[in-house]
């Protein structure tokens, strides 16, 4: 955002296309647009309301998790435990549904907040590296979820919860609506609130932020709690969509998808900047890429290799800019 | 292997020795000697604490569960642990340089499938094909990290996806399982053994011995510590930082491929679904073993104890029939937190004294 001001304005419109910073700033949007254009021209039944709706519903949980991950990465951290948090939230849901939907939701979200609080405490107070701190709950969290659920898949019959997964408002699926609202809220949080500025400042230079009197520990714990709550919410929505609580497989490899979305969206792993819209576009890009390849009868393996190539390309472009 | 790490050991001793001839005053060395002892104790606990925990757990388990301390159980357990051990060895070296290798789980699975695919052509193709391909993956990681200057976490995350993708493409989306011919020399490598201890165990032990020597007794090993301590300082000292990093990631790829090949020989087939999440198990073992994720300090022996501790936990959960296997990850995760928090406080007390 700020680096743009230091660059001299391009003399000719095409000159900026040779500027790597331009690709980092807008590359992900261009890629999404190109992919959509390609599909509009060459893929049958792609630009239909039904298909786009499916794609958006599928990408919504990833977007929600990635929003929290973007905040954590903005503080130069990482949260590997998000997938396990989703499983934990899903395991808590059927246990408390007997009391009604709201208590069950509250308990599940609290479980996510608790995971985040543990992560945040380990990172900020104990001073562990984020990878190690969240690795412990990545390993333990899913085990705990399985213990809670007796390792079983439980059918969800509560109509209110199921409505959350399948219902829609003004033609937009509720899941997508929630993801969209959250994206706007997180963008507002980052750009317009003290907390958001503190997150970015701590990620940019933690010792400097501490010396400037920012409440580093409190903000770090807050960020991990937020990430945990968002992951739990994604777990709830995915469970509602699945119509069953499946702690053994829900959210597996979600941490990788979320990190990929954040990184492809242009947020550097070294912290100090959070790109919310880029993160959403990054998640969309990965989803569209996979969908495009599947619709053209290319196997899943090709999609995985293509994803790998895109990650490398995104990070390579980001590197060009940092080395200036 | 346990005597010298360059980082913590040497700066401790110098202040004790130097003031004595210079000033000649009694309190100087005495005051310095006391924290030195404290630091040594802290260092000993940090380096050998895992071994103590491991021995305690094994000892208690032997008394409580008669089926635990049997030779058969030890044989089964060590073979199970040997594959993770080989992968974790490579991970230790990578982490000592301050990096991380998330691709090992996928590369492990790819190595197994390639070994099983190549096994009908004989013993050496079955070993060489996975080693070459997985080594190439490691080389790719190393070049992208060291030459292009990209973050290890994200590069190896991408190769994690790529290796899994290539594996799926190679096995018709996981539908084909290549089998290792029965009674072939390659199958014997995985299933045979000496005194009932499987070949994979012996290979893992030999590799750990070699790894320990490499780390402590060669200039390459010392360079790893220097690079992990501070890549900039190492560059200024004229050490071949880029080459060292490329080598260490290649080594990690090779070891993951070898572990995959051994596992395929053991299972008689190239199972496509193995190795998911193995990178995190390996990192857990390395961290429990006292190697710091920030790089610059660590030991190969600690990793071995870390792997064994994870294996013993898994085995014990199985022995306690009433607990289901989910408890295993809860206990492992708990151990990980306790160990790293303890390490953190030990390291802090060492620095402040």
By secondary-structure content and strand pairing, the structural class of chain B works out as mainly alpha
Strand proportion of chain A: under 5%
Count every helix of chain B, treating DSSP H or I runs of 4 or more residues as helices: 15
Radius of gyration of chain B (CA) equals 22 Å
- The strands making up the biggest β-sheet of chain B line up spatially as 1-2
Keywords (chain A): Cell membrane, Membrane, Transmembrane, Transmembrane helix
Membrane topology (chain A): Multi-pass membrane protein
Organism (chain A): Streptomyces enissocaesilis
Pfam families (chain A): BPD_transp_2
Keywords summarizing the entry:
heterodimer, A: mainly alpha, two-stranded antiparallel sheet, 14 helices, globular, B: 353 residues, mainly alpha, 15 helices, disordered N terminus, cell membrane (chain A), ABC_transp_permease (chain A), ABC transporter permease (chain A), membrane (chain A), transmembrane helix (chain A)
Can you tell me about this structure?
The complex is a heterodimer of chains A (324) and B (353). Chain A is 73% helix and 2% strand. The model of chain A is unreliable at 1-10 (pLDDT under 50). Chain A has 324 residues and is mostly helical. Chain A contains 14 helices and four strands. Chain A is globular, with a radius of gyration of 20 Å. Chain B has helices spanning 6-17, 19-23, 27-64, 71-96, 104-118, 123-146, 152-170, 185-191, 199-217, 219-229, 231-236, 241-267, 278-288, 300-319, 326-352; strands at 193-194, 197-198. The relative contact order of chain B is 0.18. The two termini of chain B are 26 Å apart. Chain B is built from 15 helices and two strands. Chain B is globular, with a radius of gyration of 22 Å. Residues 1-30 of chain B have low confidence and may be disordered. Chains A and B meet through helix 6, helix 12 and helix 14 of A and helix 7, helix 13 and helix 15 of B.
């Amino acid at each position: 955002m700020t680096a743009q001001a230091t660059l001299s304005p391009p003399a000719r419109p095409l000159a900026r296309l040779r500027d790597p910073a331009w690709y980092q700033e807008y590359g992900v949007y261009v890629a999404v647009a190109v992919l959509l254009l390609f599909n509009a021209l060459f893929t049958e039944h792609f630009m239909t309301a039904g298909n786009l709706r499916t794609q958006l519903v599928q990408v919504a949980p990833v977007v929600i998790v990635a929003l929290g991950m973007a905040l954590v990465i903005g503080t130069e951290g990482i949260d590997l435990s998000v997938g396990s948090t989703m499983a934990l939230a899903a395991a808590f849901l059927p246990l408390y549904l007997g009391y009604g939907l709201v208590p069950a939701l509250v308990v599940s979200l609290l479980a996510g907040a608790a995971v985040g609080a543990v992560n945040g405490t380990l990172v900020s107070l104990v001073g562990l590296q984020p990878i190690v701190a969240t690795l412990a709950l990545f390993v333990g969290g899913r085990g705990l979820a399985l213990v809670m659920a007796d390792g079983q898949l439980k059918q969800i019959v509560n109509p209110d919860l199921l409505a959350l997964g399948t219902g829609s408002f003004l033609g937009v699926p509720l899941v997508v609506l929630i993801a969209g609202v959250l994206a706007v809220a997180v963008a507002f949080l980052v750009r317009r609130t003290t907390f958001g500025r503190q997150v970015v400042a701590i990620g940019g230079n933690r010792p400097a932020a501490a010396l400037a009197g920012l409440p580093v520990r409190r903000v770090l714990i807050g960020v991990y709690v937020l990430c945990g709550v968002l992951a739990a919410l994604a777990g709830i929505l995915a469970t509602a969509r699945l119509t069953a609580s499946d702690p053994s497989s829900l959210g597996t490899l979600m941490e990788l998808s979320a990190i990929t979305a954040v990184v492809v969206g242009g947020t550097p792993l070294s912290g100090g900047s959070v790109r919310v819209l880029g993160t959403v576009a990054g998640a969309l890009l990965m989803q569209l890429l996979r969908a495009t390849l599947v619709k053209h009868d290319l196997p899943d393996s090709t999609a995985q290799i293509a994803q790998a190539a895109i990650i490398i390309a995104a990070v390579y472009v980001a590197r060009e800019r940092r080395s200036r | 292997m346990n005597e010298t790490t360059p980082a913590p050991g040497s700066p401790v001793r110098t202040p004790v020795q130097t003031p004595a001839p210079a000033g000649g005053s009694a309190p100087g060395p005495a005051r310095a000697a006391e924290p030195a002892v404290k630091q040594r104790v802290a260092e000993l606990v940090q380096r050998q604490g895992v071994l103590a925990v491991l021995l305690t757990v094994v000892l208690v388990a032997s008394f409580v569960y008669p089926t635990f301390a049997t030779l058969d159980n030890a044989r089964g357990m060590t073979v199970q642990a040997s594959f993770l051990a080989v992968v974790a060895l490579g991970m230790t070296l990578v982490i000592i340089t301050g990096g991380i290798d998330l691709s090992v789980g996928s590369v492990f699975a790819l190595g197994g499938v390639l070994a099983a695919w190549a096994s009908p052509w004989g013993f050496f193709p079955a070993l060489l094909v996975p080693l070459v391909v997985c080594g190439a993956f490691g080389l790719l990681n190393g070049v992208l990290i060291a030459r292009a200057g990209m973050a290890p976490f994200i590069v190896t995350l991408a190769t994690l996806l790529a290796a899994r993708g290539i594996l799926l493409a190679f096995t018709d989306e996981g539908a084909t399982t290549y089998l290792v011919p029965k009674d072939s020399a390659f199958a014997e490598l995985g299933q045979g053994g000496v005194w009932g201890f499987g070949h994979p165990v012996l290979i893992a032990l030999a590799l750990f011995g070699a790894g320990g020597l490499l780390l402590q007794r060669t200039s390459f090993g010392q360079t790893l510590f220097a690079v992990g301590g501070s890549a900039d300082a190492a560059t200024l000292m004229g050490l071949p930082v880029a080459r060292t990093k490329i080598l260490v990631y290649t080594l990690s790829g090779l070891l993951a491929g070898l572990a995959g090949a051994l596992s395929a020989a053991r299972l008689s087939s190239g199972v496509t679904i193995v190795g998911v999440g193995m990178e995190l198990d390996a990192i857990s073992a390395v961290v429990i073993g006292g190697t710091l994720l920030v790089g610059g300090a660590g030991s190969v022996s600690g990793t071995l104890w870390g792997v064994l501790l994870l294996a013993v936990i898994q085995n014990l959960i199985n022995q306690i029939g009433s607990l289901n296997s989910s408890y295993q990850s809860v206990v492992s995760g708990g151990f990980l937190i306790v160990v790293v928090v303890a390490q953190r406080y030990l390291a802090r007390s060492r620095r402040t004294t």
